[in-house]
Amino acid sequence: MSINSPRTTRNSRSLFRRTVDRTLELELWDAWVFAAGDATRALRGWELVRGSDDAAAAYVAYRAALDREERAADVLAECAAERARLRKRALVAA
Fold first, then answer.
1. Residue 80: which residues within 8 A CB-CB, separation 6 or more?
2. Tell me, what's the pLDDT at 87?
3. In this structure, what is the dihedral angle of CA atoms 74, 80, 83, 85, given to the nearest 10 degrees?
4. Under 8 Å between Cβ of 74 and 28
5. Phi, psi angle pair for 52, to nearest 5°
6. Which superkingdom (predicted)?
7. Nearest to residue 69, comparing CAs of 33, 35, 21?
8. Which of 13, 18, 61, 65 could pair with 39 as two cysteines, CB 3.0-4.6 Å apart?
9. Three-class SS of residue 5?
10. Nearest CA-CA partner of 30 in 78, 80, 72, 58
């Protein structure tokens, strides 16, 4: 089989696509983990200043971090669901 045969090219593209998909999923996982850590730290910061003049600003920072964590989780879930749909479609087609 030649290196430029359609089968080799198709296999190379498939491997490349799986690698890109896996890399994207790992990056989204990392984004969610970092966002969750930020939310946890912001919550601790808010807890430390409750009752002080800084409490309102700390609460706003916590809510913003929580919103970012929620969005990161949603994007990760959408990616995982799409990959599952594509895998199922590939299995049915095989």
1. 25
2. 81
3. -80
4. no
5. -105, 175
6. Bacteria
7. 35
8. 65
9. coil
10. 72
